[in-house]
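**Protein fold record**
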Amino acid sequence: MLLSIALSVSSFLLTAVMHLAALRWCSGGMARIPMGPPTRVLVVLILLFTVHMLEIGVFAIAYALAERWLNLGAFAGEPIETLLDYYYFSAITYTSLGIGDIFPTEHLRFLTGVEALIGLLLIAWSASFLYAMMNRLWVWQPCARPDGPPQDMSGQPPAAQRQQGDTGENGGKT
């Protein structure tokens, strides 16, 4: 059991550090590369997808190691014969899809639970990072209203319209 815990914690730490490094590069190192906001969002999305795929690979290797060399348990259901089979199981666990055609036994169940939890956390971390990034980079166009002029999300007229037509409470006099 202790070996299963150690392997789980090691896999968790490795994937968390990988994710942190990727997000730090996206918010810092990548900032020096000139590109427009839509391109930057797309590049970050591709990078995050790639990092998630690598993190799934870390757990796939952990499953192979745990089953084949450490004898921490086995898999039941569909046979696991290749590294791609471990990768498939890891992907459905990481994403919490959990199809159920393959399932772990014995101490491999602990590793599976840890992967499902870290997958949930890292996917949420990526989503919140993308949301924050798009809030900073994305310029939202005012939406047309059926009963009046366009307004932004705050309910105010667009900035250009405020500068031209709004002179303030005192009519522009100081």
In short: Residues 53 and 91 are 8 Å apart (CA to CA). The beta strands are 75-77, 102-104, 143-145, 148-151. The two ends are 76 Å apart (CA to CA).
